[in-house]
Amino acid sequence: MDLTSIHNDYDGESIENLPSDPFLAVEKWMEQALKTEQEPTAFSLATHDLKNNISVRVVLAKEVTIKGVTFFTHGLSHKGREIQETKNAAGVFFWPASKRQLRFEGAVTAIAASDSDAYFHSRPHLSQVAALVSRQSSVVASYQELNRRFEDESHRLKDQVVSRPQDWGGFTISFDKIEFWQGKPNRLHQRLLYTKLEDGSYRREWLEP
Ligand SMILES: Cc1cc2nc3c(=O)[nH]c(=O)nc-3n(C[C@H](O)[C@H](O)[C@H](O)COP(=O)(O)O)c2cc1C
């Protein structure tokens, strides 16, 4: 399929006045994305293993703070094993309505077990059951087999509190690097990179598009 005739022309708001504090800038963009985007909290998460095999998938950000972006997953999944092995990851939000991407890279840490518990128990009961029965990223004989397991467990755990699976929880990707990308006409896009320095402050540089 030839896609060369598809031309997206970008003409977004200028970002020359983004705050010098990158977290305030992230907050500003996230607040705007929550108003304009269809899936504002979804981001592509790239991880790698110790042999430098790379993989990427979409997850949902559940918290954005000065510490970084937090998402939830199963620690024994493909991504879960990789982030625990290499302790780093990269992510990108793509916000097409505002013609923006927000890229970030950094160290990954597991959040406190009590915080994972609190989030797990805030989810709908059947989502909790699903997290319990899904051995995320493992091969399963058929979809029916997974469904059967789900039905059995939902029946068994009806009206009961579901315990958070030990390996399921939240992980935070810190902001070692954050890039604000704003689409502009004629492919002269704006790219503003914040890089964390040893003293905790950030260097701010424009990159060529
Ligand atoms: C919009 C969207 C949101 C998703 N959110 C999550 C999430 O927050 N956590 C998660 O583990 N998987 C999420 N998934 C599923 C992942 O993309 C992926 O299929 C799954 O985590 C298994 O990935 P892995 O085998 O690389 O570990 C989401 C998928 C989509 C399309």
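^ flavin mononucleotide complex. The two ends are 27 Å apart (CA to CA). The beta strands are 42-48, 54-65, 68-74, 88-95, 100-110, 168-173, 177-182, 190-196, 202-207.
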